[in-house]
Structures are given as structure tokens and as C-alpha cells.
């Protein structure tokens, strides 16, 4: 029999509505809590007070930010891209570039790596200071180079003000037992066997991860395959990343701007942590050399479209899959959190810019030069 009564909602429908409503509330609260933690950590660190992370609370402000509305104080600062002091050129010349050369392998079955986290001010562009959380020495952290099959024994020592951790993409180990938070003044050691060759990211995995990565807590590990790759005359490691600043950094060190990071609108983008450092201090090769680039993109959020002006990537091991490579690639994408290995053989002497061909990145500093044949002069691209 077909009912002619006006459509009435079955009581079970109402229950489902109620459950759906509750789910939305819970989801919003969970997201709000997730957003409120970084703000509080930020406040704690900025005030220079004790590193006590308050119990997360859902606030009107965090709810508003969640919904994409502007809460008081939550708007992104204007762009500080390209900010430079008058002596920027002299500062760039005086800057000691991050050593991009792949470090040598170590003998033995176990490679010990000490990562000491410190809160330090780094330079990310000429005259631009940034209050970083960095593995001692700066951002990126040290390049780790091991052979496939070696055991990597990591010790993380936290000399910073808040908890940190380290997540190794090269490891197949339980994150909850190994990539754990290490409290200030403490150390933690874990190991993994580097069974997978390639170039991998390591980074702090403590929440909010976006902030910990953006503040400088990342680096690259190169796992050399047991079956050797073709011979390379020169090997360089490039770590791409972007920086989100709350001020220009020319007088006071800049700090992290969460609103900019969420919008993915960086002020600076770099290879190995300093804008354009290999323009002033080019990487070098001789004509006919095979040059290998191990490129890792630390993000935290923007991919790198790796390209070398004036040549073609002879071999491209995409996504670090060293079992196969592409030939003659013009531009290779390296995703945030991923890596790729690229060979070029350049015969004609000259200055060859390497870039992320997403060209906003070049304007923001993600550019360097390969000087083939030690020619004179410099150029920007
Ligand atoms: Cu951290
Ligand atoms: Cu990761």
C-alpha cells in the first residue's frame, strides 16, 4: 500500500541528523584544537618564558581561523619577499655557502648520527635573519650519506625549549616507537636499517609539523645503492625549502607566520637554506663531467620543479626509485617530502642556472649556478 500521508521524517532519520551534527561539532573542535596548539607554542616561545604548552582549548579565534575568517592578530603579514639591506651584495659575497658536495661514506655496519637540536638565529638571505629551530649548524641539517644495508643509529639531543622529534623517511620502523617527542635536555636513540636506496627527507615530526619543518628542522639522507649507479664525477645535494616570515628579518630575526604557511605564500625559497647562495658561489664541474644532483624537497608545502637551464637531465631517477630512470628530461618534479636523482653531462663551458621552474620560486631565491669549466663572471636568471 502506498501511503498518501505527508512525508514525515522517520525518527531514525532525526537520530542520524543528530549524529551527523555531533560529528561536525567534534570535527570542528578537533581541528580547532589542532590549530590552537601552534598559536600557544608560538606565544610561549615568543614570550621567552618557560616552555609549558598549555592544554589546548577551542577558542573563538581558532574556530574563526578554521573557517578561513580573519581573527584578531591571525591575518598573514604582508610579503617580505626580496627585502634586502643596502649591502646585500657584499653580504652575499661574504656568506659561507652550505657545502653541497655529497660527503663521503663511512665504513662499518653501523653509522652513528648525532642530531643536536638548538634554537638558533640563521641567515636565510643576505641580511635576513630567522629565529630557527635547527639541527646544530643550521638549516638544513647535515647531509647523511650511507650505503644500502648499513644500520643508521640516530641520537637526537634536544637543547631547545620545547619537545622535538625526528622522522626518517628512509626507515621502515614504527613511528610511535621511534619518531617520538624528546623533551628539552633529553636525548633519544633509535636505529633503522637503510634497506631502500635513494635520497630521503628527515624532519621533526612534532606537532604542528608544518611549523617545525618551516622553522628549519629538516635534512637529507642519501642511501647509496648496493648496485652502483653509473659513475659520476661530481655529486651535489640540494635541499629545497620555503620560509614564512612575520617580519622582514633585517633588524630583528623573523619568526614563523602560520597564516602565511597555511596560505602557502612564502617570503623566501631556498636551496640549502639560503637564497641564491650558489649564484654568488657557484657549484663547479669540468666540461664533460657527469654531475649528479641528489635533490630533496623539504617543503613544508611546495614542490620543486627541478630544471637546469641550457641542458637536459640525461638521467632522472624520479621519486628516488633507483631501480629505473628516465632519459632526457627537461624538468623533473620533486614533491614536498620527496627526492629525485638527476645526472647531467655538460660539454660546453658556461654558467648553467639550476632552478625550480615554478618561477615564483626563483624570484624568492630558489636558484643557483653550475659553473662548467670555471668560466669568469656570474649571472642571475
Ligand atoms: Cu621540532
Ligand atoms: Cu615526513
Walkthrough of the structure:
By secondary structure, this protein is of the alpha+beta class. The chain folds into two domains: 13-66; 89-372, Immunoglobulin-like (Sandwich). 19% of the residues lie in helices and 33% in strands. The chain has eight helices and 19 strands. The strands form four sheets. It has a six-stranded mixed beta sheet. A five-stranded mixed beta sheet has the order 11-19-18-13-16. A hairpin with a 2-residue loop joins strand 1 (110-125) and strand 2 (128-135). Helix 1 (11-46) packs across helix 2. The protein is globular, with a radius of gyration of 24 Å. The chain starts with 10 loop residues before the first helix and ends in a 9-residue tail after the last strand. Residues 1-73 have low confidence and may be disordered.
* N-C termini distance: 78 Å
| Bound molecule kinds, no repeats | copper (II) ion
Order of helices and strands: HHHEEEEEHEEHEEHEHEEEEEEEEHE
Number of helices: 8
- What is the global morphology? globular
How many domain modules? Answer: 2
Q: Strand-residue fraction?
A: 25-35%
CATH class of the largest domain: Mainly Beta
Rg over CA atoms: 24 Å
Number of strands: 19
CATH architecture of the largest domain: Sandwich
Structural class: alpha+beta
The percent of residues in helical segments reads 10-25%
pLDDT averaged over residues: 85
Strand order of the largest sheet: 10-9-12-17-14-15
| Biggest sheet overview | 6 strands, mixed
- CATH T-level topology of the largest domain: Immunoglobulin-like
CATH superfamily of the largest domain: Cupredoxins -  blue copper proteins
Unreliable runs, pLDDT <50, ≥5 residues?
Answer: 1-73
